[in-house]
Amino acid sequence: MRLLRLMIILSIVLISNCTSSVSPRIVLDNEKANLDFLPLGLYTVIFLDDFPKVKAAGFNMVQVYHDTQSLAEAQAYLEAAEAAGLRVLQNMPRDYLNADDEFWIQWVTTLSAYDALAWWYLPEEPTLQGVSHADIARLYGIIHQYDPKHRPAATYFGIEGPLNDWCDVVDIIMAGCYPEYEGEPRACMKTWIDTARQDCPSRTVIGVPPFFDTSDFGRSGGHPTPHEARFDAYTALIGGASGLNWFSYQNGARLTELWAGLQEIVRELHELSPVILSPDGPQTVRVRVISGPAQSPNNHGYVYDSIQILQKEEPGAYLFASNLATDTVVAEFSGLSPDAVSVDVLYEGRRIPVLGGSFRDSFAEADVHIYRVLASVTYLPLIMKNL
């Protein structure tokens, strides 16, 4: 694993279906990789014996994260993942970048036979590693010519942008930030997601939150709390990420409190996946700050409204909200349906009345609230019955 800044910020590609019987969605060249499941993956799951533990924790995708995996090792990894009901973000090792086309054709044709393979992972951080556009284009072309299922190709760039020059050789962009490692505000997660979506609007974006202690990489910033990890995950999804892939299991699993918190976050996301995966509709809800900071801290010139929201209308009506400010914010939400009588704050055991299509709530720093809107006659999807 890299020790450099954005190199640690790594490539990530997540995705996988909870059951190995479901084939990856076919993606053609220059088509957005719209997903019909919510990827929840981990980098650096090295040991095959860990697969059952990772699966039991609720994750659905794994990645070995090293550049020297042989073809035989890759086959063994895919076989073990399939047996455990996991999908794989499959490395195309940078160490083999200069191999001839025949090598890569064999690599793709051999590994594409495994149903556990979810996405291809191109050599990450090409701009930082001296990998040219032509190098990536060659591999991208071989993938889409020799993988009969046309699985998407993904990678992590390790730069905020511009990414415009790379949009044509990648289907999925892994994007995220590590506040403890970089000494940046937590709002930086939105910066990276926004940059990827703006530079390559036709491409799918996967959020890459931190799951490690900076001491593993020679720094003293520490690691996220479970509360902060929840913020990172939901802020990425509110910002438009289509899934999450945490960096990284090998480092983070020994942080027992964070590992337990992350499993709880993943449990929530599984329960909410029908809502998260539902089509985006009109964003009619508005936010007004009543007290506290109206904006996030400045992060390399980027400043955002302190309360970020995502409105979903199927199944039922839901509102996801996170606080990017570094202090408590009281916010008013308006523009809800005239039929709305209250909102349930999921996972918090609270209910707030709605008057005239509006309600107020308080957000501590890095808070996330998930609201289910209740009307006079409320449809409660069966999948949400235990929330």
Number of helices: 11
- Portion in strands: 15-25%
Structural class: alpha/beta
- What does the largest sheet look like? 8 strands, parallel
Series of H and E elements: HEHEHEHEHHEEHHEHEHHEEEEEEEE
Q: Would you count the extended β strands for me?
A: 16
Poorly predicted residue ranges: 1-31, 382-386
The Cα radius of gyration reads: 21 Å
What separation lies between the terminal Cα atoms?
Answer: 38 Å
Assembly state here? Answer: single chain
- CATH level 4 superfamily of the largest domain: Glycosidases
Largest sheet: spatial strand order: 7-6-5-4-3-2-1-8
- CATH topology of the largest domain: the name is TIM Barrel
CATH class of the largest domain: Alpha Beta
CATH hierarchy: architecture of the largest domain: Alpha-Beta Barrel
Portion of residues in helices?
25-40%
Total separate domains: 2
Shape: globular
